[in-house]
Structure formats: structure tokens, C-alpha cells
Amino acid sequence: MNKLNIKLLSDNATLPTRGYPTDSGLDLYASEDITIKAGDTSIIPTDIAIELPLGYEAQVRPRSGMSVKTKLRVVLGTIDHTYHDHIGIIADNIGTQPYEVKRGDRVAQLVIAPVVYPIAKEVKEFSYESDRGGFGSTGR
Predict the structure, then answer these.
(1) Could you give the strand order of the β-sheet that contains 88-93, starting from the edge strand earlier in sequence?
(2) Which of 7, 40, 66, 102 is deepest in the core (most CB within 10 A)?
(3) Where is the chain membrane-spanning (predicted)?
């Protein structure tokens, strides 16, 4: 897949861009000013829609700088190839003060990835057992 069809749904929409040509994600821009109260979750509008071919998904992901420098946390979102409507960015304000998102702010990134479609199969046992642990089992 070399091209991604993107529809701008309003004059406020900004075509997603990459900081560098080989970056994995396309930056997503807020299409309007929005205030997210402390402790609240909101959907930040982008006013864009995308058309993905069969076999691909899009992931709305946080931008690392936003996560480090602010109390705004973008929630990971999956966009299926059949969804052609407005893309919103779900964000939590984990801070104690309202957070102001301004029109044109780069808030999240859009990563396109191939998808496999396995069929779920129940088994009684796995072909091998793992004793590796999880959730931080390898230490700090």
C-alpha cells in the first residue's frame, strides 16, 4: 500500500503529515479548539476520514512528546477497513487542571498496519507451556 485516501470533512481539517519521510505514523491534527476538564475523557475531532484497503487497519496512537510533556493521554484506537467516517481521537486528561487543545495541534498519530484474520480455535492445551512470567517478570 503506497497511498492512503483521505477525505477532509471540513475547512478546519488538516491533511495528516509525517515529521520525517520514514516515520511510521502520520500526525493527526485537532480540527477545533476543545477544553478537556481534569479527570475527563473527550473525543478530539480531526474532521478527516480514510479509506483503507482490505487487509489493513489504522491505529490511532499517542505521540510520545504529548505523553511526556502533558497530562493528556491518547487512548489507542483501531480503525477497520470498512469504517469511512470521521476519525476522532479519544483522550483522557489525567491532570488536575483543564487541558486546552487548539485547532491545528498535533494530538495523535495514525499508523497503518497489515492485518491477519485467524479463526479462533479452542484447545485444551498448548503445544508447549511457557514459564516465562509476564507483567514485568523480567525486572526493571
Answers:
(1) 41-45, 88-93, 72-74
(2) 66
(3) none
